[in-house]
Amino acid sequence: MTTKEEKATNPNLPWVEKYRPKQLDDLISHKDIISTIGKFVKEERLPHLLFYGPPGTGKTSTILAVAKQIYSPKEFNSMVLELNASDDRGIGIVRGQILSFASTRTIFKSGFKIVILDEADAMTRDAQNALRRVIEKFTENTRFCIICNYLSKIIPALQSRCTRFRFGPLGTDQMVPRLQHVVTEEGVTITDDGMKALVTLAEGDMRKALNIMQSTHMAYEEVNENNVYTCVGHPLRRDIENIVNWVLNENFTTAYRNITDLKTKKGLALQDILTEIHNYVHRIDLPIHVKIHLLEKMADVEYRLASGTSEKMQLSSLISAFQAARDLIVAEA
């Protein structure tokens, strides 16, 4: 099915699913991993696989592309079992559904079945231990692909039974061409700063970039920097510059009032403001001991925010830290 036909039949499909790669050749990143798996598939020597890395980096897309390359659409449902975190994957499912799928052979198709365990870091330890034996017992006719974000959540016994591949965050040069392809297909009006904002906010997560772009496109005529940041409720660079300017140059009351007004007007969370200020402080030229003082205080504020304390009090604490830093600089001058 061509993209045009697909567009006509599925006009309401989220772009993440609509533009999910169908074949290994369509994948945009981790060329070394893709070529290695491509060789496995060609030689029909696919091992058990363990994919790990941050979200939106192509782990699930890779194994689904492999499965679609091996099986025809008719065979797909009988040869591939896909379970993710929304399915119950306790020890009962491993001993029941997975065991019965892995143990049954197909009459009409020689070769192996594939079991995809997505978000496997959510599986209980007992279920992972039970899976060990199933993997060993049915290697002859079933291959397992375990996908997770955190390798440390997978027991060593499972790790040793699989070939591991790490999917790192995507680079700008990998994301932009793919986003450009979607822009062309969907007729999105996007500016250069809009594209830059998408890539910055996504932080190497392709799924996040597509979701933000689709949301912004639906909400506004044009996808530009301002609209992208407004759509996700993230502070703009100039907002952060204003905030730092207020906390360093205005008195406490004015700075507090201005920041509170900005937060209310744009619906910003103090956590997001703090993250951006942290990055900004690293970039500006301050005496090293002042910078250390600020970073320590910001770490404290962030810890307290994560514990669920009052945003108003933590905002006061953040402003106080900057005003104390300003006094340190003045005292030295």
TrEMBL record:
UniProt-listed Pfam families: AAA, RCF1-5-like_lid, Rep_fac_C
Source organism superkingdom: Eukaryota
Gene3D superfamilies attached to this UniProt entry: 1.10.8.60, 1.20.272.10, P-loop containing nucleotide triphosphate hydrolases
GO annotation terms (biological process): DNA repair; DNA-templated DNA replication
Residues covered by the AAA+ ATPase domain: 45-173
Compartments where located: Nucleus
Keywords linked to the UniProt accession: ATP-binding, DNA replication, Nucleotide-binding, Nucleus
Gene Ontology terms for molecular function: ATP binding; ATP hydrolysis activity; DNA binding; DNA clamp loader activity
GO cellular component: DNA replication factor C complex; nucleus
PANTHER family (alphabetical): REPLICATION FACTOR C / DNA POLYMERASE III GAMMA-TAU SUBUNIT (PTHR11669), REPLICATION FACTOR C SUBUNIT 5 (PTHR11669:SF9)
Family as reported in the entry's similarity comment: Belongs to the activator 1 small subunits family.
Protein name, per record: Activator 1 subunit 5
Native species: Mytilus coruscus
